[in-house]
């Protein structure tokens, strides 16, 4: 039985990848951080009582900033594959916590690669690094592909740039089977609530159910190449099953502005929106009631922005036979459906006199 170790297993991608690898018959180990409240919502359904037989899903306490901890976990598991998905993954937050982001997202990758080397696992353990389209930053070329020059525009992207190159370097220097997946944005009903897509689908659902009045957003002009996370984890695995390690872009090849995502998501929740005005005065108006339900709040602007991302998945298609299956309309439908279910549950709770949780980001 193959063993995989996933950092970031409690995150969006970690949860889909764990499901995928369990289906493939792997023993799946994951690193979770100690928190003062439960943080394993996304993987709770995979968890079995450790006293049962044939437990193939095992969580270990750890942190990418803790060298000794990582070495001990890798030594104990002796994994065939490591998927390094753990990261402080919010671009805007990285401007507020740049040093921590560099430590977890940059040096954390080095710590794992060093663990492989220190433990003499160079020939056994294959390594996947969660690289990102944020590396492209300021537009140099579109669509962006494996050969497009990088120009990071945030502490997050700068830390991930270090991780990209240290992964390449350990491959070349020590012969480790190490790959970068340069993933463009990918979303799902499990996406964190403060990323723009989930913030929008959640607000569309809650506004349609009378639970929220307005949605405040930042840059509506930014364009992203949005895919479905469930599709992308298959490519992470495929990348580690080849004869030779290599780096691949994963994208849909279609780009959409935040504003258009808003329109599509609200339409899915039954609200027709039109936009009026420009810049910070732009507003989204409910065509039926005439109410302003979307406003721009400069609080969400970033000191430096990535305006346009559109990826070319040609190499992954050709060499790995990978094509994303879910398009943006289906993805939005999936996300709004889940958020409508949650919103309706909250309506029932409110009617029963209970308080429901609010999010302000
Ligand atoms: P999430 O934010 O959903 O998950 C991040 C995971 O990393 C969580 O499990 C989190 O734990 C964990 N984590 C954070 N800091 C640490 C730390 N110091 N030590 C150990 N674990 C830590 O991200 P996604 O699932 O969306 O993304 C997965 C990876 O792919 C990330 O590295 C991200 O940067 C990268 N990426 C994501 C893209 C996307 O569009 N989703 C696109 C390109 C790259 P906890 O649950 O405790 O917070
Ligand atoms: P991104 O995702 O920065 O691309 O990073 P995010 O969803 O945060 O932003 C996408 C774009 O939307 C604009 N935007 C807003 N963003 C947020 N979060 N909140 C808002 O209110 C808002 N209004 C407009 C942003 O300015 C931006 O242009 C994601 C993360 O998953 C990274 O970890 C990953 O590496 C990249 O995708 C690829």
From TrEMBL:
GO biological process: 'de novo' GDP-L-fucose biosynthetic process
Listed EC numbers: 4.2.1.47
Ranges of residues in domain NAD(P)-binding: 5-335
Function text: Catalyzes the conversion of GDP-D-mannose to GDP-4-dehydro-6-deoxy-D-mannose.
Keywords: Lyase, NADP
Provenance organism: Sediminispirochaeta smaragdinae (strain DSM 11293 / JCM 15392 / SEBR 4228)
A Pfam family matched in the record: GDP_Man_Dehyd
The name this protein goes by in its record: GDP-mannose 4,6-dehydratase
Cofactor: NADP(+)
Origin superkingdom: Bacteria
Entry-linked HAMAP family: GDP_Man_dehydratase (MF_00955)
């Amino acid at each position: 039985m193959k063993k995989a170790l996933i950092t970031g297993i409690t995150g969006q991608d970690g949860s889909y990848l764990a499901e995928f690898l369990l289906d493939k018959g792997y023993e799946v180990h994951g690193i979770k951080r100690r928190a003062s409240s439960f943080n394993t919502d996304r993987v709770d359904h995979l968890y079995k009582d450790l006293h049962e037989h044939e437990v193939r899903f095992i969580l270990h306490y750890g942190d990418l900033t803790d060298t000794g901890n990582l070495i001990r976990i890798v030594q104990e598991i002796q994994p065939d594959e490591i998927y390094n998905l753990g990261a402080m993954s919010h671009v805007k937050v990285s401007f507020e916590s740049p040093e921590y982001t560099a430590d977890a997202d940059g040096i954390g990758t080095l710590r794992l690669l060093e663990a492989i080397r220190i433990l003499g696992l160079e020939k056994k353990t294959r390594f996947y690094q969660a690289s990102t389209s944020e590396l492209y930053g300021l537009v140099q070329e579109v669509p962006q592909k494996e050969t497009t020059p990088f120009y990071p525009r945030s502490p997050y992207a700068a830390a991930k740039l270090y991780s990209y190159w240290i992964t390449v370097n350990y491959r070349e220097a020590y012969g480790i089977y190490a790959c970068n997946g340069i993933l463009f944005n990918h979303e799902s009903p499990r996406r964190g609530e403060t990323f723009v897509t989930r913030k929008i689908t959640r607000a569309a659902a809650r506004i349609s159910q009378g639970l929220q009045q307005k949605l405040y957003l930042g840059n509506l002009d930014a364009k992203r190449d949005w895919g479905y996370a469930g599709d992308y984890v298959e490519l992470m695995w495929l990348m580690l099953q080849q004869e030779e390690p290599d780096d691949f872009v994963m994208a849909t090849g279609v780009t959409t502005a935040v504003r258009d995502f808003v329109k599509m998501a609200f339409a899915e929740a039954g609200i027709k929106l039109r936009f009026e005005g420009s810049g910070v005065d732009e507003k989204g108006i409910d065509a039926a009631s005439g109410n302003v339900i979307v406003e721009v709040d400069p609080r969400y602007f970033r000191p430096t922005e990535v305006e346009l991302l559109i990826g070319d998945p040609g190499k992954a298609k050709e060499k790995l036979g990978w094509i994303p299956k879910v398009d943006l309309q289906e993805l939005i439908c999936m996300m709004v459906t889940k958020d409508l279910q949650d919103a309706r549950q909250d309506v029932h709770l409110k009617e029963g006199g209970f308080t429901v949780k609010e999010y302000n980001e």
